[in-house]
Amino acid sequence: MTLALYGHPFSSYTWKVQIALHAAGVEHEFRIVDSDHPEHLAVVQSAGPAGKFPVLADDDFLLFESTAIIEYLARHHAPESMLLPEDPDAAFGLRLLDRVFDNYVMGPMQAIVAEHLRDGENPDDARVAEARGALTRSYAWLEGWLSTYPIGDQVTLIECAAAPALFYADWVLPIAADFPRLRAWRAHLLQLPALARCVEAARPYRAYFPLGAPDRD
Ligand SMILES: N[C@@H](CCC(=O)N[C@@H](CS)C(=O)NCC(=O)O)C(=O)O
After folding, report:
1. Atom of ligand 1 nearest to the CA of 65
2. pLDDT confidence of 195, banded at 50, 70, 90?
3. What are the pLDDT digits (tens) for 1-46?
4. Alpha-carbon torsion 91, 150, 23, 188, what sign?
């Protein structure tokens, strides 16, 4: 049996799945998607309608969408892990937060990055302002949510989604001092071994960050 993950070490959604794999100790092969490996790109493009990564290959079975991959890992490769409780009622809150991070943190963060990739000299100010506004609303909502969330070393679907989203969101719009719980949680997530591995593996690619990577983290 071969379990393989196709992705890129600098990609936020690749991290989301890698955090789950690392935290649950699931053995797998990493297959980088880059111009040196057209055969990996071909697999990714064949897997889903958008040709995006990550993609998980479990022998011949291909699965795309980071959340679906983590659900599959929790069920088939890491049933003893904390990734996602089996009980649907217990899992509901985790799935909700996963959607919050993908839609309302990763989404606007990626919109700002995309605008700078489109034209780094002249990003569309209105689009960037709209995305920054959306991120600020998400930061405020998360600050309130964190007053009831037990921060700890657990790695669940929530941490898998939150860690890469907050890591890169803070690079495009630093989390202001008005949100101390969110800042502290991001710092805590950065120390988790599963995330630290992703951060180190991505370090050589920082020069490619379209807005310029900050000199920290
Ligand atoms: N909803 C997808 C999003 C995946 C995604 O946006 N992947 C980016 C990398 S972080 C990608 O494949 N970008 C390359 C492309 O769009 O061609 C998921 O959860 O896996």
Report:
1. 20
2. very high
3. 689 999 999 999 999 999 999 999 999 999 999 999 999 999 999 9
4. positive
What confidence tens digit (pLDDT) does each residue in 43-85 have? 999 999 999 999 999 999 999 999 999 999 999 999 999 999 9
User: Is this structure's pTM higher than 0.90?
Assistant: yes
Ligand 1 proximity of 206 Cβ (cutoff 6 Å): no
50, amino acid identity = A
d(CA 184, CA 151): 10
Q: How far is the CA of 53 from the centre of ligand 1 (A)?
A: 5
d(CA 214, CA 217): 8
Minimum CA distance residue for ligand 1 atom 15: 52
Joined together, the tokens standing for residue 73 give: 């890992």
d(CA 44, CA 56): 9
Q: Round to whole Å and give the CA distance between 64 and 217.
A: 29
Atom of ligand 1 nearest to the CA of 11: 10
Ligand 1 center from residue 50 Cα (angstroms)? 8
pLDDT of res. 2? 87
